[in-house]
Specification:
The chain has about 200 residues and is an alpha+beta fold. It has 2 domains: about 15-50; about 50-175, Cupredoxins -  blue copper proteins (Immunoglobulin-like), CATH 2.60.40. The protein is built from 3 helices and 12 strands, in the order H-E-H-E-E-E-E-E-E-E-E-E-E-E-H. A hairpin with a 2-residue loop joins strand 2 and strand 3 (about 80-85). Bound molecules: copper (II) ion (CU).
């Protein structure tokens, strides 16, 4: 019969086989490598945001965003200002439940410092359809050096679940060639002409 105090029958006291020792040693050595990589990645890994980071209260950041939006506003869409900041400047966008604010119109090839933050909860900045991602956390101002290199009309999607309105949280960044403060060119007559191509 087996109890906890009598020695079970078996060969568990036999010394480990050489192969087992080798594998345990390899596994232990690999654990040590991964353990060392954790702090190394923290300091050297490419996942750390480039550019400046500093703490800011959400209210102070929001005030700065509003000041920026008022200063360079060139239009408005559904109550959200469209802002065209000068090339080389510091530009701002904040994620809040549930919108990205404000909309930006930038010049292709110009350098900007894009300050991103969140007002209430974590949000995920995702530039669609380019798939550029950056998580924004309330209380931190991330100044990202950016150079828009393709013209286009992009959407900013939130890819961090942030509540009941998460799926409608959309922003907009437009990249134009040349002066971003100039009004968008009117559609050319050719483009505006009705399609007479003979389609049924
Ligand atoms: Cu969200």
């Amino acid at each position: 019969m087996h109890t906890a105090i009598t020695t079970p029958r078996g060969i568990w006291w036999v010394r480990a086989h050489k192969g087992e020792k080798v594998w345990v040693t390899i596994a232990f050595a690999w654990c040590m490598v991964l353990f060392a990589m954790m702090p190394l990645w923290h300091f050297k890994g490419g996942q750390n945001p480039a550019g400046v980071r500093h703490k800011v209260t959400p209210a102070a950041f929001m005030a700065r965003v509003q000041e920026f939006a008022d200063q360079y506003k060139v239009g408005e869409e559904n109550g959200v200002p469209l802002v065209a900041p000068p090339p080389g400047s510091d530009i701002y966008m904040i994620g809040l439940q549930w919108r990205w604010y404000p909309e930006l119109r930038l010049t292709k090839g110009a350098t900007y410092t894009l300050h991103l933050s969140a007002f209430d909860v974590n949000h995920g900045f995702n530039l669609y359809p380019l798939n550029i991602n950056f998580m924004v956390v309330p209380g931190y101002d991330y100044g990202l050096r950016i150079v828009p290199n393709q013209i286009g009309d992009y959407r900013v999607v939130c890819n961090e679940f942030c509540g009941i309105g998460h799926h409608v949280m959309l922003g907009r960044i437009v990249v134009v060639d040349g002066d971003n403060r100039a009004p968008p060119a009117a559609a050319s007559p050719a483009a505006a002409a009705p399609n007479t191509g003979g389609a049924p």
